[in-house]
Design goal:
The chain is mainly beta. The chain contains three helices and twelve strands; from the N terminus they run βββαβββββββββαα. The protein has helices at about 20-25, 155, 160-170; strands at about 1-5, 10, 15, 35-40, 45-50, 60-65, 65-75, 85-90, 95-100, 105-110, 115-120, 130. The strands form three sheets. The protein has a five-stranded antiparallel sheet with strand order 1-9-6-11-4, with no helix packed on it. A hairpin with a 2-residue loop joins β2 and β3 (about 15). The chain starts with a strand and ends with a helix.
Length: about 170
């Protein structure tokens, strides 16, 4: 789900509600938000694709500085869209927000020289539940908009989608 807020611009700058419980409930997002995260990354960084094992963590992501290409991949066993991904450009100019439900892995690539993103999450981060799948897994065939990504060690050594599915089915 991509949320485009009502932005009020004038000569002084802009104002918009980045979160309004009543408005979000109209989109079916009547959720109990538990944690906010703020991350900064340099151009070419790819983060992901990450998720928390059950109970999971839904999130709303927005870019407050620069530009990122954000994506979610359906990793729900038995889902008709299992392994399919959707990506959207989030920028400080377009102010779009991207909802990533529980059961989806999340990642993004930094398009600008530097970018800052905010995540609003439904559960707190639990290191023991942290998991991920290779950012370039051939089963996903994600069309990343960066030629030579900057990756963390964690993302370089992540499991394949096939390994993930085997664990889920055992």
């Amino acid at each position: 789900l991509v949320i485009e807020p009502d932005v009020h611009d004038d000569s002084r700058g802009f104002f918009f509600e980045s979160y309004n419980a009543e408005r979000f409930a109209e989109f079916g997002l009547d959720l109990d938000w538990k944690q906010d995260n703020h991350v900064r990354s340099v151009k070419g960084t790819v983060r992901g694709v990450h998720f928390q094992r059950p109970p999971g963590q839904a999130k709303i992501v927005r870019c407050v500085r620069g530009a990122i290409w954000d994506l979610a991949v359906d990793i729900r066993p038995g889902s008709p869209t299992l392994g399919k991904w959707f990506g959207v450009e989030l920028t400080e100019e377009n102010k779009k927000m991207f909802f990533v439900p529980i059961g989806f892995a999340h990642g993004y690539a930094v398009l600008s020289d530097e970018a800052e993103a905010l995540y609003k999450c439904t559960n707190v981060y639990v290191p023991d539940l942290e998991d991920g799948i290779m950012w370039n897994d051939p089963d996903f065939n994600i069309e990343w908009p960066v030629a030579e990504p900057i990756l963390s060690e964690r993302d370089c050594t992540a499991q394949s989608f096939k390994q993930y599915l085997e664990k889920m089915n055992s």
